């Protein structure tokens, strides 16, 4: 994966328009990564142990939703959403739509939904995006709808 | 921190009501933890390096928002929201309200906002909660509004 700072073009608010799309690189998740994240942040049986997970709602080991969110962010920061000044979120919505399983290969496709210059701060604006995390079967496993703070191009 | 499985009472849908409140233990975040999470999931200057961070929007090192979300989850799983069957989220909203700095001590206060039995699945329902992450100054740094899948008490 390339580091975000090596991306060729970085987008200011002025460069973004509704309907623009960006695509990230991909990342494959191992069972050990799922368990390691869960041990620190989400120690529940369905994220920690294959056998215990089979008896739960998830019917098998599944990644923590917060792990899924963090992976989406890592893919966007590493070139999947090349915003000038970096990816700075004020908040947003998240929906977990299907379990993420060991061995899944994920990438993120982002579409720009709203672009709103700030009325009070002339150097920035707000962008709403929809970022779908998609697995190797083409299934959307997570949809994130972040509100981002994006700088205007310096004049 | 106690493990969630040692919590005395676990709440089924039938035990939850609008306005009920739960409080978590607390956790202090170091600069190294902030940087370590960022190196893996959110490698941007304001999460990685004190000096570089001073020149950014955050004006100093700040935790990744996804680190903040994961910490809130860890506090809820470890006794802060003792739901029977575990904390299973379908999604929700997140708002990052203030930066989280190195040395901050965080806890989570959760209030139950909605309790809705499923019409199609008699063994479960949906709960909406509001979970504020609060720092040592009493400031709300993050508000998470999860939609949770909660089992009904077995009859």
Strand order of the largest sheet of chain A: 1-3-4-5-2
Computed structural class of chain A: alpha+beta
Elements of chain A, N to C (H/E): EHHHHEEEE
Head-to-tail CA distance between termini of chain A = 32 Å
User: What's the assembly state of these chains?
Assistant: homodimer
Percent strand of chain A equals: 25-35%
CA-based shape of chain A: elongated
Q: Detail the poorly predicted runs of chain A.
A: 1-7
* Total beta strand runs of chain A: 5
Which sheet architecture does the biggest sheet of chain A show? 5 strands, antiparallel
Helix count, DSSP H or I runs of 4 or more residues of chain A = 4
Radius of gyration of chain A: 17 Å
Mean of pLDDT of chain A:
94
The chain pair with the largest interface is: A-B, 36 and 36 residues
* Helix percentage range of chain A: 10-25%
Structure description:
The structure is a homodimer of 155-residue chains. With 155 residues, chain A is an alpha+beta fold. Helices cover 23% and strands 34% of the residues of chain A. The first copy, chain A, is built from four helices and five strands, in the order βααααββββ. In chain A, a hairpin with a 5-residue loop joins β4 (124-134) and β5. The longest helix of chain A is centred in the middle third of the chain and has 16 residues, at 65-80. The first copy, chain A, is elongated, with a radius of gyration of 17 Å. Mean pLDDT of chain A is 94; it is low at 1-7. At the A-B interface, α1, α4 and β2 of A face α1, α4 and β2 of B.
